Amino acid sequence: MIIQRMTTEFRGVAPLPWLGVIRVEGDDAAKFLHGQLTQDFSLLGLSEARLAAFCSPKGRMLASFIGFKRSPTDILLVCSRDLLPGTLKRLSMFVMRAKAKLTDASADFALYGVAGDDIETIAPGPRQAWSKSQAGAGSLVALYPADGVARALWVVPDGEPAPIGPSLSPEQWALGEVRSGVATLTAPNVEAFVPQMLNYESVGGVNFKKGCYPGQEVVARSQFRGTLKRRACLVHCDEPMAAGDEVFQASDTDQPCGTVVQVAAVPQGGYDAIVSAQVSAIEADHLRHGSAEGPALTLLALPYPLLSDI
User: Domain 12-180, what fold?
Assistant: First the structure.
């Protein structure tokens, strides 16, 4: 049985030191990324951002990004810091003759999560997820909400003042990230998922009409030939969990049916998590953490619909 979670306050400003920035500069920056990632960067406007995955030739995710243009020849990719060095090295291997320079720009920018009414103090006005507003030297990217509360990513050159607003703890922001249902890939789960196993096609992370990129055939086949057997879901557990942990069905002691993707502590007790699991196991609703005899996982309602057709 899927239950509705107890809501939590997600309002204020939180620094995000666990995220890093890859900067891609040059006349071919957008063209180069368009050929490497799951989203369309060639048609990316200055008022838009993209959720995107970087995949292996087998279609397995090596990293996930929030990408946007600061100018037509200057693109920032925000990703988990623990994946940045290896991802930067691998992406750089494919630059070849393209007029694009890739650098680790994490020290050049400060990243903040902003939730609730404080977003309006930066750039007022209505916005949809993955829209981008420019306010002075900073870029504001609208994210998926958490418990109905608007959230945004604020990226500003290092040394600029932080957004004005009450302090939001890293733990509170992390819980909002989980409850948004939009996963950020981290080191424990590299090459564990094709993008749809994290529902990326349903939250704007895959464009099935763009040209080729590494793993594109596998990603497309998973979508259109009915071969996708896993999906992301939200769960609650009374005991601690960690990214990369195995998930089992209570009726199957032999092999795991899923993997913990992202976890956050809940102030009222326990832990919420994004889990990627076999669709049949999610439907059976007898998930356990760590083993078939481990702590029970309670399914929570996803905050967005899954797309059945593209």
Answer: Gyrase A; domain 2 (3.30.1360)
